[in-house]
Amino acid sequence: MIVIGHPWIPSSLFRKVFSKEDITKTDANEIVLLEPLVDSHALAAYCQQNQIAYAVTACTINDAILANALGASYLVCEEDDAMVIQPIAEEYLFDASVLVLIHEEKEIAKIARSGIDGVIFPEAIV
What we know:
This protein is an alpha/beta fold. It contains five helices and seven strands. It is globular.
């Protein structure tokens, strides 16, 4: 299971970006975090073309499929959305990992029992 943003586990920061200029200002060890594809598909394509690791928020199966096809490394989801997206990701062998945004450590076990790829704490998002 992937755990991002827990104080005991070293991990990259996920930096919210809204433009190509924002992307060029990110540090090499940061993961670009895009808004849902409906608002950021051009930035996702830019990241894919330039081999920039990025995450995108995904709320639907379509978002997840398209983000994976555009080379996203991570799909950041709410728990309910992740429960629907994860089986699709497994069936089609997505390269992208499904992450659930959590706020408390005790949520890790619940997400793990659900078979979701990983979790991300808000502290990892800047």
